[in-house]
Amino acid sequence: MKISKLILKLFGWKVVNVLPDIPKCVIALAPHTSNWDFIVGKLAYSSLGRNAKFLIKKEWFFFPFNLLFKSIGGIPVERDKKNWLTDKLAEEFNKHEKFQLAVTPEGTRKPVKEWRKGDYYIALKANVPIVLVGIDYAKKEVIFLDTFYPTGDYEKDIEKIKAHYKGITGKHPQNFLL
Fold it and tell me: Which residues contact 164 (CB under 8 A, 6 or more apart)?
């Protein structure tokens, strides 16, 4: 915790508008335009004394990185296979008193018009909120934006969710489409 705070401070980053620690939640971190997002996000969350599992593409799970990622909460994802990951992760919330899962709604660093729906449906099926967190490179801030409870109306909810991220600048702003 102290080391994470120190590293963030050395690089000029701060964590703002911190929301209460919710034992079971999906954390939506956006924009995701760089590999640095993972490092800054992980440091920010651990600087608060919090630890979340996170999804990461399976291609990163090779020796020795697989050992590192697994030890800090990484869950490998095969993006090109339909493997019921949403259902499996929703079930994980029922198995634990505390389970926080960090995801990047875009699912990639490239520009995408449609965000992936998995994080939304994981939260909906597990009956947990989505904690909206922005990573703003222009301000060097990791910002807790809001706690959002999915209603089941994805189209309406995603518009409300995306509205929270307006004005937040990714490392590569041209890759963040709302």
Answer: 132, 134, 145, 146, 148
Best CA proximity match to 44, nearest among 54, 33, 59: 54
Rounded-to-integer distance, Cα 86 and Cα 117, Å: 9
Provide DSSP, 134-157: EEETTTTEEEEEEEE---S-HHHH
Please tell me whether the overall predicted TM-score, pTM, comes out greater than 0.85 for this model.
yes
Domain residue ranges of the chain, discontinuous segments joined by +:
2-167
pLDDT digits (tens, 9 = 90+) for 18-61: 999 999 999 999 999 998 999 999 999 999 999 999 887 788 78
The token pair that represents 34 in the structure block:
């760089």
114 half-sphere exposure, CB direction, 13 A CA radius: 5
- The Cα 15–Cα 92 span in angstroms is 28
